[in-house]
């Protein structure tokens, strides 16, 4: 039987880590995601599955603990919010460079700087365009419900291990703090050490076996020729991910004359906004990227043939809108709307923005 | 390796094994400057790993610094950590593999400047790991800059008139600091510039691995070493300078456990 | 049926847990719910509010700018949320501490003396359940049975012995809630 629970997004994510057979969580408190660590500490997952949970001395330490555990072929996760993710950026680059699977969660608050603890979507660039140094990409998943906060733990790890690359959940203060019904995933067993060895023994640092080459996890290549070849390898992998793993959802797009592109909380708010627009006789569809990287470029290109204008709705000064514009390449007008700095746009404001920025302009 | 009791005459004789490579070391030229103490320290750690029969269950962490390429010399599974973060990486490994042997190998800049927080907290949690801390009072890899452990008035490329302690503070005795923490079971300061000291250091490393294996807490070994290139000295002169200047400030011997 | 409600007052009044019990009770009735709190450093004494949506259909936006029902438990929330009641909608408030009562005439307004009744019960923690009772009387969208189950789900087992007290408080709220005429404003002062 399905277990229906009423949970916060942060709590659902935390419970899902236990049920997904994750081996270790390392974190540090920061609003609005502290419930993840609090929930895990309260649940004592070491008694349930043997999962390790540790409150690190800093976000730096936490992500480097993830780096260590991930090198062992184990499922390791950390979560934070903007300022903490900035601290983690160096190690995230290391993990991507060393080609290790792991999951990083950002429950976004308003910035820049210490900013506000209220919800925001202004860490899009940080998650999608880099954040850390060097030519790397993260698989970025954008949950728009408490259910997806739970479901994307498993999805994130599956993708991370399939491609040996870090996956990233870009959530926000709304999705992290709100409660709604959630069906929790079934309990998966954690892999045994023997299973880890069998699955990942060709790359993971498990101890050097007799008559087998040893494994070294590093992102260092002093010779630029080697680094260049490694970067080509990464780019080929990223092309493969783009081909196979782009995910999005279309809402009321079939006969839409205008399109909203929005992810996370903004996609939810926009759904109400398009019902308000419909009452005023305007057909507006929503394209919701589920993966922000890889970005649903082709799907947006297709929609650009159908609609008269596109509004990127995001709680930022305009970040994802750049990728929408790249996809549309000038075919139809692309505008941005969003409250930011911790303010949340209302459905009415989004509906009004469709009229002001696309219809009556 | 057995302690040598072979006479000089026997050494000259063909067929006598006076010295043999360590199985856990890769047979290659090291990237260290001739005269540097890293090579000896690497070998001692690997001899201990080999003699304890734990090659298959040991994971080493290389830092940022001269020993960043330690994994090119130590023939075991290894991971390279970001600057200063080796104790956190080791913690991550130890938490998912509580029964593996995990050690970090770090220099003074890595451990006592940029990684102070990770060092202190891994020690305080009593992670059952071994920390090998090679202190030569200078940033070797980047070309001889001031380190947290640089002696007062010592000249480096970023203290060209000598370390001004009014400006940069006194050298950090982090080994004495971590000895204060209950999570740390064994703290010792050793050196490798003389045969007798090499033997003592090896004994200390073995003790450290045993302590971590028995889950008694963290074992911390400082090795006071030279940096003849960074100190701008001949190797033999650097060893004498080490004796006369480093050791009075960083006295050798067990500090705890 | 979709009911969009915001409960706004001081932290420590049980605003968020009232919302949670509402949400749980609706789940017990087979409905969809969303619960979106204001969050932050506001603990006891600061302002707190929670938006709860109960619906027979899947809920889209958890963020709203107008509500079917607004429950106001302090003066700052009156200033902020009176204007966000949909025309024809409902405003319920506890007059305790309200010095500028509502003035709108295009909505239905009710009062509940929650603080007074909770004091009479010698248990200030029943305050939010008195408010709950007032709400359920005005908007009978939940079966009392399901509220009972909702309480069981949302309260930790060690507090289950308090459920009868909570139900009692709900019933008091149901009895004591009364319509409020804007023209009565002078009576409050």
What Rg of chain C, in angstroms, do the CA atoms define? 15 Å
Which CATH class of chain C applies here? Alpha Beta
Strand line-up in the sheet with most strands of chain C: 2-3-1-4-5-6-7
Helix content of chain A: 40-55%
Q: Main sheet of chain A?
A: 7 strands, mixed
Order of helices and strands of chain A: EHEHHEHEHEHEHEHEHEHEEHEEHEHEH
What's the count of strands of chain A? 15
Number of domains of chain A: 2
Strand content range of chain A: 15-25%
Order of helices and strands of chain C: EHEEEHEEHHHHEH
What CATH first level of the largest domain in chain A would be assigned?
Answer: Alpha Beta
List the quaternary state of the chains.
heterotrimer
Brief rundown of the structure:
By secondary structure, chain B is of the alpha/beta class.
Polypeptide structure, described:
The complex is a heterotrimer of chains A (361), B (257) and C (189). Chain A is of the alpha/beta class. Chain A contains 14 helices and 15 strands. Chain A has two domains: 4-183, Rossmann fold; 249-359, Rossmann fold. In chain A, the strands form three sheets. A seven-stranded mixed sheet of chain A has the order 3-2-4-5-7-6-13, sandwiched between helices. In chain A, strands 10-12-11-14-15 form a five-stranded mixed sheet, sandwiched between helices. Chain A has a two-stranded antiparallel sheet with strand order 1-8. In chain A, helix 13 links the parallel strand 14 (309-313) and strand 15. In chain A, helix 1 (9-19) packs across helix 2, helix 1 crosses helix 7 and helix 11 (264-279) packs across helix 14 (347-359). The N and C termini of chain A lie far apart (52 Å). Chain B is an alpha/beta fold. Chain B has a single domain (32-256), classed as Rossmann fold, CATH 3.40.50. In chain B, the strands form two sheets. Chain B has a seven-stranded mixed sheet with strand order 2-1-3-4-8-7-9, with helices on both faces. A two-stranded antiparallel ribbon of chain B has the order 5-6. The longest helix of chain B is centred in the last third of the chain and has 19 residues, at 195-213. The relative contact order of chain B is 0.14. Chain C has one domain: Pyruvate-ferredoxin oxidoreductase, PFOR, domain III (Pyruvate-ferredoxin Oxidoreductase, domain 3). Chain C is built from seven helices and seven strands. A seven-stranded mixed sheet of chain C has the order 2-3-1-4-5-6-7, with helices on both faces. In chain C, strand 4, helix 2 and strand 5 form a beta-alpha-beta unit. In chain C, helix 1 (15-28) crosses helix 5 (144-154), helix 3 packs across helix 4 and helix 4 packs across helix 6 (163-176). The mean pLDDT of chain C is 93. The interface between A and B is large, with 40 and 34 residues.
């Amino acid at each position: 039987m399905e277990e229906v629970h009423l949970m916060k997004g942060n709590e659902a994510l935390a419970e899902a880590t236990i049920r997904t057979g994750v081996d270790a969580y390392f974190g540090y408190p920061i609003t609005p995601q502290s419930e993840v660590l609090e929930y895990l500490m309260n649940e004592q997952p070491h008694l349930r599955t043997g999962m390790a949970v540790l409150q690190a001395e800093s976000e730096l330490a936490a992500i480097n603990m993830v780096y260590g555990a991930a090198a062992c072929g184990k499922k390791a996760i950390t979560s934070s919010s903007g300022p903490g993710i900035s601290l983690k950026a160096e190690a995230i680059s290391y993990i991507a460079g060393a080609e290790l699977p792991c999951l990083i969660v950002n429950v976004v608050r308003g910035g820049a700087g210490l900013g506000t603890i209220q919800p925001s979507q202004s860490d899009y660039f940080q998650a999608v365009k880099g954040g850390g140094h060097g030519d790397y990409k993260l698989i970025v998943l954008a949950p728009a419900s408490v259910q997806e906060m739970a479901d994307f733990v498993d999805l994130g790890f599956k993708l991370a291990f399939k491609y040996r690359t870090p996956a990233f959940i870009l959530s926000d203060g709304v999705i992290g703090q709100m409660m709604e019904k959630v069906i929790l995933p079934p309990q998966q067993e954690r892999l045994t050490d023997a299973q880890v060895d069998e699955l990942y023994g060709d790359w993971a640092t498990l101890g050097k076996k007799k008559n087998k080459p040893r494994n070294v996890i590093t992102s260092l290549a002093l010779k630029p020729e080697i680094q260049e070849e490694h970067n080509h390898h990464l780019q080929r992998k990223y092309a493969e991910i783009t081909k196979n793993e782009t995910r999005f959802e279309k809402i009321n797009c079939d006969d839409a004359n205008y399109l909203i592109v929005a992810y996370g909380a903004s996609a939810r708010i926009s759904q109400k906004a398009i019902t308000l627009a419909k009452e005023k006789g305007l057909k507006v569809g929503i394209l919701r990227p589920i993966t922000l990287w890889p970005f649903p470029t082709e799907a947006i290109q297709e929609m650009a043939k159908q609609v008269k204008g596109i509004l990127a709705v995001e709680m930022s000064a305009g970040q994802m809108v750049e990728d929408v514009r790249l996809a549309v390449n000038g075919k139809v007008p692309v505008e941005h709307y969003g409250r930011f700095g911790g303010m949340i746009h209302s459905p009415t404001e989004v509906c009004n923005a469709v009229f002001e920025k696309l219809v009556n302009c | 390796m057995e302690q040598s009791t072979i006479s000089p005459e026997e050494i000259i004789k063909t067929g006598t094994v006076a010295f043999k490579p360590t199985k856990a070391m890769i047979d290659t030229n090291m990237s260290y400057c001739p005269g540097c103490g890293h090579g000896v320290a690497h070998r001692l750690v690997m001899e201990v790993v080999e003699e304890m029969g734990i090659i298959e269950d040991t994971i080493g962490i290389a830092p940022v610094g001269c020993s960043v390429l330690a994994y090119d010399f130590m023939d075991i599974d290894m991971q390279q950590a970001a600057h200063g973060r080796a104790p956190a990486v080791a913690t991550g490994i130890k938490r998912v593999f509580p029964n593996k042997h995990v050690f970090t190998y770090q220099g003074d800049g890595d451990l006592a400047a940029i990684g102070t927080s990770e060092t202190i907290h891994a020690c305080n949690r009593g992670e059952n790991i071994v920390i090998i801390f090679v202190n030569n009072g200078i940033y070797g890899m980047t070309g001889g800059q001031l380190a947290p452990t640089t002696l007062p008035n010592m000249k480096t490329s970023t203290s060209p008139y000598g370390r001004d302690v009014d400006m940069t503070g006194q050298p950090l005795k982090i080994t004495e600091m971590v000895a204060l923490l209950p999570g740390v079971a064994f703290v010792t300061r050793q050196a490798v510039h003389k045969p007798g000291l090499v033997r003592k250091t090896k004994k200390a490393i073995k003790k450290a691995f045993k302590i971590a294996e028995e889950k008694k807490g963290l074992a911390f070994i400082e090795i006071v070493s030279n940096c003849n290139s960074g100190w701008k000295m001949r190797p033999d002169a650097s060893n004498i300078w080490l004796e006369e200047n480093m050791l009075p400030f960083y006295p050798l011997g067990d500090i705890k456990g | 049926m979709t009911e969009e409600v915001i409960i706004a007052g001081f932290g420590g009044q049980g605003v968020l847990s009232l919302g949670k019990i509402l949400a749980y009770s609706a789940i017990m009735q087979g409905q969809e719910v969303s619960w979106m709190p204001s969050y932050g450093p506001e603990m006891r004494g600061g302002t707190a509010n929670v938006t709860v949506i109960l619906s027979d259909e899947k809920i889209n936006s958890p963020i709203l700018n107008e509500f079917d029902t607004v429950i106001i438990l302090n003066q700052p929330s009156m200033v902020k949320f009176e204007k966000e009641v949909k025309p024809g909608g409902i405003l319920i408030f506890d007059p305790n501490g309200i010095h500028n009562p509502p003035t709108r005439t295009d909505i239905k307004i009710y009062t509940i003396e929650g603080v007074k009744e909770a004091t009479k019960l010698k248990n200030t923690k029943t305050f939010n359940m008195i408010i709950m009772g007032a709400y359920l009387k005005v908007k009978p969208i939940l079966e009392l049975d399901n509220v009972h189950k909702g309480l069981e789900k949302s309260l930790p087992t060690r507090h289950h012995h308090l459920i009868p007290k909570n139900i009692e408080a709900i019933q008091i709220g149901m009895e004591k809630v009364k319509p409020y005429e804007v023209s009565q404003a002078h009576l409050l002062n």
